[in-house]
């Protein structure tokens, strides 16, 4: 009878571990903060930019490719610029257009590389 109870406990523990591990794998595979499909970015005097956030998430393997420079928070880029921690056009030049140009040079499908392609004048 003791062997039967021990076996039952072991099976219960195994099921719990399997379910817990499966939950961790599922959680790791789905972004916890996916954000909006499109984000409207302030574009200064050149006009706003409609940023296709979801499309970038689908193409880039790691959120930190972009978000190492600014947090995942609405208005983060503008906040950092107003604090003097980011220069005007820094993200656009060092990240956006640089990445798009590198992909284009590698023969891959790439996003726009000129200002007027993204900015919409009011």
Please characterize this protein's 3D structure.
By secondary structure, the protein is mainly alpha-helical. It folds into two domains: 1-30; 39-120, Cytochrome C3, CATH 3.90.10.10. 54% of the residues lie in helices and 7% in strands. It has six helices and three strands. The protein has helices at residues 2-29, 53-59, 64-67, 76-82, 90-105, 115-118; strands spanning 39-41, 48-51, 119-120. Strands 1-2-3 form a three-stranded antiparallel β-sheet. A hairpin with a 6-residue loop joins strand 1 (39-41) and strand 2. The longest helix is centred in the N-terminal third of the chain and has 28 residues, at 2-29. It is globular, with a radius of gyration of 23 Å. The N and C termini lie far apart (79 Å).
- Strand order within the widest sheet? 1-2-3
Shape verdict: globular
Q: Could you spell the SSE succession in H and E letters?
A: HEEHHHHHE
Distance between the first and last residues' Cα: 79 Å
Number of helices: 6
What proportion of the residues form beta strands (DSSP E)?
5-15%
Helix-residue proportion: 40-55%
Tally of strands: 3
What's the CATH H-level homologous superfamily of the largest domain?
Answer: Cytochrome C3
- Please mark out the parts with pLDDT under 50 across 5 or more consecutive residues, or reply none: 11-30
Described by strand count, sense and barrel closure, the largest sheet is: 3 strands, antiparallel
CATH top level assignment of the largest domain:
Alpha Beta
The CATH architecture assignment of the largest domain turns out to be Alpha-Beta Complex
Class inferred from helices and paired strands: mainly alpha
Determine the CATH topology of the largest domain.
Cytochrome C3
Total number of distinct structural domains: 2
| Average predicted local confidence, pLDDT | 80
Q: State Rg.
A: 23 Å
């Amino acid at each position: 009878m003791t062997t039967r109870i021990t076996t039952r406990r072991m099976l219960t523990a195994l099921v719990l571990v399997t379910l817990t591990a499966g939950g961790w794998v599922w959680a790791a595979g789905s972004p916890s903060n996916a954000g909006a499909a499109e984000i409207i970015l302030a574009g200064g005097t050149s006009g706003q930019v409609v940023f296709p956030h979801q499309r970038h998430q689908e193409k880039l393997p790691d959120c930190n490719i972009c978000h190492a420079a600014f947090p995942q928070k609405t208005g983060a880029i503008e906040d950092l610029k107003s604090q003097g921690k980011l220069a005007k056009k820094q993200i656009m030049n060092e990240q956006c257009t640089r990445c798009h140009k590198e992909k284009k040079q590698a023969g891959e499908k790439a996003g726009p590389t000129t200002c007027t392609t993204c900015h919409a004048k009011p």
